[in-house]
Each structure stands twice: as C-alpha cells, then as structure tokens.
Design brief:
The protein has one helix spanning 28-45; strands at residues 24-25, 53-61, 65-74, 77-85, 91-100. The protein has a five-stranded antiparallel β-sheet with strand order 1-2-3-4-5, covered by helices on one side. Helices cover 17% and strands 37% of the residues. The protein is globular, with a radius of gyration of 16 Å. It is an alpha+beta fold and 109 residues long. Keywords: Cytoplasm, Protease inhibitor, Thiol protease inhibitor. It comes from Pelobates cultripes (Western spadefoot toad). One of its GO terms (cellular component) is cytosol.
Length: 109
Amino acid sequence: MAQIYPIDLTRHPSPFHGGWNPLQPSNDEIQRMCNAVRNEVQIYERRIFQVFRAVQYRTQVLSWTTHFIKVYVGGNEFVHVKVHKDIEKNVHLICYVSGKTGSAPIMYF
C-alpha cells in the first residue's frame, strides 16, 4: 500500500512543477516588467493610464516563469497583467484583464 506524506505548504509553497508561488508585494523588478508592457496595454485599452504601478504579483513556474501582476491604473481601477520574461530577459505581455478592483484576487487567466 502506498504511503501518503503531507507537504508543508508554508515551507514549500509551490512544490510541484506548474504550481503557484504565494502572493508577494511588488518590487523594482516587477515594476520594470510592468513598465515594459505598459504601452502595449494602453494600445489595447485605447487609453492612457496616468499611473501604472505594480502592487502585488504571483508567479507560476513551468519551463519558464509567468508573472501574474496586479497593477494600479488610477481611481479605483486595477488591471491584471500576465507577462513572461524570456531567457534573454525580454518581457512579453501574454494577456491582461481590465476593470479589476483592489480587492480582486489574482487568479489564473
């Protein structure tokens, strides 16, 4: 009979390939990624954001790392962006979701 061993997710928050890392406050690297995709999001949204400030993020690690970032864009509005940083450190916008609030959790999209 197989043994089942519990995994302490506080010590190993993303133990499996493809798992989510815990929600973290933004940092300078995450803000740089947001700055890199800001114009592209503005083009798709057909508007200019007065502010585009990363607030929180989580990552998903596969053969690459995908960043899901909550971005404050002014007023009571947030945008969630999904970005990928390639091996050459180029940042790519995968997709985004607009019309979010500050309390909206970062979910897979």
